[in-house]
# Entry
Amino acid sequence: MTSSRRKSYGVKGAPYAFLLPATVLFALFFALPIGYAVYLSFRKVHVSGLGLGSGARKEVWAGLENYTDTLTDSELGHGALRVLGYGCIVVPVMLGLALLFALMLDSDKVRLAPFTRLAIFLPYAIPGVVAALLWGFLYLPDVSPFYYILEKLHMPQPNLLDGGPLYLAMSNIAVWGGTGFNMIVIYTSLQAIPAEVYEAAKLDGATPLQVALRIKIPMVAPSLVLTFFFSIIATLQVFNEPTTLKPLTNSLPLTWSPLMNVYQDAFRKGDIYQASSEAVIIALATLVLSFGFLRAANRRQKQEAAR
# Structure
């Protein structure tokens, strides 16, 4: 009787034992840092006198002071507007190309599909800093082969690291690196569509374009929602591209994006408390936007299913 109880307890406890390592890692490297950042966002350093001597600088409770300063920070607001314009370029172009490439690779007439699929996905495997450095040097007139060709052809040589073209230059880096991943997600969904659906469409006389517009795209809508969700998060967290291109141009301020502003406050100014409040607000904004988009997408899918 006792041995049977031990066996039953062992079987019931097995799932928790398997989950324990992942739970510990999640708590140590994800939940704990987030909790510590939230704690720091409500603190500040109080300086007594000239700030010299022991006890002249001590950490005290700040309440919502850091959050008030963050919400009234013009640099953070300007950075959010820049990221908004950047996202309006990156997200539609990247997802449009990913969908186009996925539809092309799903066609029976495409040759060398495995090689093409790998070639499109390969830029995603390159680290963001390396990709930004690569494209950054291609944008420099003195070292770029593109500018040399344009000069020999007596064609205009635009400065891609200044003014409006700067948004296009950084968007190009993100599109080049992220299209392959999104294409794979959409392509996998296309491969999961039953072949009987295509056969029925052919019997009804549907053209390849009609099959793509009326069957394939509607059936991969959940994948499009997922890739759009990931793209929004990646856009709000843009940091590598502007930070890497900053030494190559004077047109990029040190606080071009919200995360760059957090970096400046934390590591240049040494104000980790203000930086923590900014990070918390950015995380909350990302959560609200992502959750709102998912709710809107789910509501629309339920309305279409009800029809």
Observations:
- The chain has a mean pLDDT of 87.
